[in-house]
């Protein structure tokens, strides 16, 4: 019997990657978007995630709702995020679908750093973190099947807004310099989007053994000294001697009152000043292993997708069903 999913945020990094992988796995995938779109093997439906009737209509007959939607450019994030989630919960209740939510480390405060267990208490220190905690509380209380997969900072060839694209390199240009937002010697956790999507879909496929409210964390790439990611960029572009300079945090301070994205980046600076690492023990207990693409390969695909490198053909590689680490 054909399975059907609704993806909210299919034009974004996580939503798009999960949507394409579900299609490759044989799912019918509906995608809600405010304008007319075609492509990626998706059934595009005109509608707005802020409109409950639109979401209810799109979710009719689905078994999975991927809630990966965010306001464009973080505008009005605090006012729009929770109403959008409430619409998803209402649609899942009407259709009997499982909700899949990409989680973040924003939920946690320094009291549980540096190594965060899946059941660590959530005491955030930022406005965005408090909203994220409320999102998960509403999902837990709704009584519906919910899957949350948490990981480090996203990167990938179609990641959209990300620290990799906004903080480390300049999209659309050859790499002549690299910035490092982290303090010297401070570890940081990264997650390659195709691996994240593979992990999410594998968990969805194991839905019969998951608890009603299921939360898992990915290990991804643990950059123990904060230099492994920038070193991989230098190797991939053929400039191993290239050393990363400090990220201009002062610019986010100056521009924060005028540019929403810079204000959001500034708020998350605390995550670059100390090591923050997620435990994937619970994930391994369910899946046995975590999809993991070699770092240099993941970085090369990401730089190609950002227009910083000519395409070498790696992006043309398609994964066979169940093959870890390769984008579907």
From TrEMBL:
InterPro entries reported for this sequence: NAD(P)-bd_dom (IPR016040), NAD(P)-bd_dom_sf (IPR036291)
Pfam families: NAD_binding_10
Domain of life of the source: Bacteria
Domain NAD(P)-binding: from-to ranges: 9-154
Protein name as catalogued: NAD(P)H-binding protein
Organism phylogeny: Bacteria, Pseudomonadati, Pseudomonadota, Betaproteobacteria, Burkholderiales
């Amino acid at each position: 019997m054909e399975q059907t999913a609704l993806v909210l945020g299919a034009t974004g990094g996580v939503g798009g990657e999960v949507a394409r992988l579900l299609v490759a796995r044989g799912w019918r995938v509906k995608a809600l978007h405010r304008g007319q779109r075609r492509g990626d093997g998706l059934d595009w439906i005109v509608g707005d995630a802020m409109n409950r009737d639109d979401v209810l209509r799109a979710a009719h007959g689905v078994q999975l709702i991927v809630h990966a939607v965010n306001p464009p450019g973080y505008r009005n994030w605090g006012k729009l995020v929770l109403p959008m989630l409430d619409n998803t919960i209402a649609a899942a209740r009407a259709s009997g679908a499982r909700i899949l939510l990409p989680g973040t480390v924003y939920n946690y405060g320094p009291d549980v750093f540096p190594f965060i267990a899946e059941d660590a208490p959530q005491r955030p220190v930022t406005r965005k973190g408090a909203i994220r905690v409320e999102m998960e509380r509403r999902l837990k209380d709704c009584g519906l099947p919910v899957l949350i997969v948490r990981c480090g900072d996203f990167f990938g060839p179609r990641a959209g807004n990300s620290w990799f694209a906004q903080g480390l390199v300049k999209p659309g240009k050859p790499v002549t310099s690299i910035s490092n937002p982290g303090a010297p010697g401070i570890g940081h956790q990264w997650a390659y989007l195709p691996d994240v999507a593979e992990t999410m879909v594998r968990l969805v496929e194991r839905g019969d053994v998951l608890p009603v409210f299921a939360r898992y964390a990915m290990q991804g790439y643990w950059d123990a000294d904060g230099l492994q990611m920038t070193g991989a960029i230098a190797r991939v572009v053929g400039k191993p001697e290239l050393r990363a300079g400090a990220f201009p945090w002062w610019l986010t301070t100056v521009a924060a009152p005028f540019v929403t994205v810079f204000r959001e980046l500034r708020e998350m600076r605390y995550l670059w000043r100390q090591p923050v690492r997620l435990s994937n023990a619970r994930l391994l207990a369910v899946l046995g292993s975590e999809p993991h693409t070699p770092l240099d390969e993941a970085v090369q695909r990401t730089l190609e997708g950002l227009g910083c490198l000519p395409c070498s053909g790696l992006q043309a590689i398609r994964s066979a069903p169940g093959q870890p680490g390769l984008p579907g």
